[in-house]
Amino acid sequence: MKPEQQIENAMHDPYPHRLMSSNTVIGYLNLVTLLASIPIVGAGLWVAHGGSAAAATCESALQAPLLAIGFIVLLVSLAGFIGARYHVTWALWLYLLAMLLLVVALLGVTVFGLAVTAAGGGRPVPGRPYQEFRVTDYSAWLQKRVQAERYWRPALACVVGSRACPRIAAWTPLDYLQHSLTPIQSGCCKPPTSCAYGPGGVPVQPQDEDCYRWNNAPGILCYQCDSCKAGVLEQLRRDWHSITLLNAVLLVLLIAIYSCGCCAFRNARRADTTAPYGMSKINPRWDYFWSRWWNGQREQLY
C-alpha cells in the first residue's frame, strides 16, 4: 500500500471514535449530576431562608449538608463535563482529584456509620405491640452525644417541634395495647411501661428513675427521661443506617464514574499528542471553535 493511501486510511480510521467513548460517557454522566445538583443547592438555600418555621424543626440541621453536597457535586460535575467534552486535561485532572477525595471521604463516612449504628435496638414489651429503648444499648459515641447538653438541647427542640406526642395525646389504654409507637413516642410521650403509680400519680414503690421524671403536663411528659434520649438515638440509628446503605450504593457508583474519568483523562492526554498509526497531531484548545465562530460573526458584521 502506498504511503498516501496509508495516511488517508489513518485519517478515516474509526479508532478516534472508540478512543473518545469513555469521554462521551463521563460527559453525559456529569451533565446529569450537574443538573441534579441544582435542586439540591436550591433546597439548601430555601432552608437557609426558611425563617423561624424551619428553625423550630429538624429541617434547619439539613442546611449545611445540603449546601455543601450541592456545591461540591456542582463544581465536580462541571469540571468533569468540561474536561471530557472539550478534552481539557487540567480540568479532568482536577475532576479526578476531587472524585478521589469524595470516594475516600464517603468510604470513611460509610464505615463510621456502620460502626456507630451496629449497636442498639428496642426491647419488646410483653403484651404490647411497641418496643422500649435503653441508652446503654447504643454505642459509646452516641451515648456521649446524647448526654451532652449542647447536643441534647437542639435534639429535644426537634422532638417537641415534630409534634409526635400530641398525635397520641387522646389515646386510651386500649390504644396502647393495639397500636405500635415510633421510638420517640415510646420514649418521650409516656412513662416506661413498668412504672406503677398510686393516687395522685405518685410512684408506689422504688423503680426506674424515669418513672419519677414523668409528668402528665403536655410541656413536660417524659422529655427529660433517659428513655426519651434512647428513643431519639433509636430514630437516629434507623435513619443513619438507611443513609449508610445509600452511601454504600453511591460509593460503588462513584467508583464506576471515577474509572470512566480515568479513561477520559488518559484519552485527553493521548489526544493532545498522538493520532492513529503513531502520527503526531496538535489539537486546538477547547475554546478554539467558540472563538472561530465569534470571529466569523464579526467578519459578517464588518
TrEMBL record:
A family per Pfam: Tetraspanin
PANTHER family xref list: TETRASPANIN-8-RELATED
> Membrane topology type, per the record?
Multi-pass membrane protein
Q: Which GO terms describe its cellular component?
A: membrane
Origin organism is Urochloa decumbens
Q: Which domain of life is it from?
A: Eukaryota
Which positions, given as ranges, span the membrane? Answer: 25-48, 60-84, 90-119, 240-259
Q: Which UniProt keywords apply?
A: Membrane, Transmembrane, Transmembrane helix
Where in or outside the cell?
A: Membrane
Q: What is its main location?
A: membrane
Keyword set includes Membrane: yes
Task: Spell out the protein name for this chain.
Answer: Tetraspanin-6
UniProt keyword Transmembrane helix present: yes
InterPro entries documented for this protein: TET_plant (IPR044991), Tetraspanin/Peripherin (IPR018499)
Q: Which family does it belong to?
A: Belongs to the tetraspanin (TM4SF) family.
